[in-house]
Amino acid sequence: MRKLDELIEEALKDQDRAILEATEEQGWFALGLSQFRGKLGWVTWVIMIVQATLFLIGVWCAIRFFGATEVVLALKWGLSGAVLMIMATILKTSLMPQMQADRILRELKRVELMLAERRG
Questions:
Q1: Phi-psi group of 70: left, alpha or beta (phi > 0 → left; psi -120 to 50 → alpha; rest → beta)
Q2: Which of 37, 52, 67, 77 has the greatest count of CB atoms below 10 A from its CB?
């Protein structure tokens, strides 16, 4: 156990400043924008592109729905638009758990740094 603590302390000595800067509290928009960087940033880009596409097609279906003169056409466009917009919303909210996980990891790094400074 002591060996593990020493390894953590040595690693933190080299990276104290970088970790301290990386663990600063971020606002909601900064957290959201940080999802576009890092190893999994490409996944966020793909999700947001698909989400935007679904939303735009959903809006197009909604416009067609309000312009429909027959019940069957209104049903076709209305259901399609509603389903596409719900899918877009679900995709956007799928990023929330990753944002929370990043906040927790940032806080754990801050606690590790505080413990290492206290021991050192």
A1: beta
A2: 77
* pLDDT exceeds cutoff 70 at 39: yes
As a whole number of Å, the end-to-end CA separation of the chain is 16
Residue pair 31/97 in contact by the 8 Å Cβ criterion: no
Per-residue pLDDT tens over the stretch 45-61: 999 999 999 999 999 99
19 to 30, 98, 103, 106, 111: CA distances (angstroms) = 17, 20, 14, 9, 11
CA angle, corner 108, sides to 107 and 111, nearest 5?
90
Residue 69 has pLDDT above 60, yes or no: yes
Which residues lie below 8 Å from residue 31, measured CB to CB, with a gap of 6+? 99, 102, 103
CA–CA dist 18, 85 (Å, integer): 41
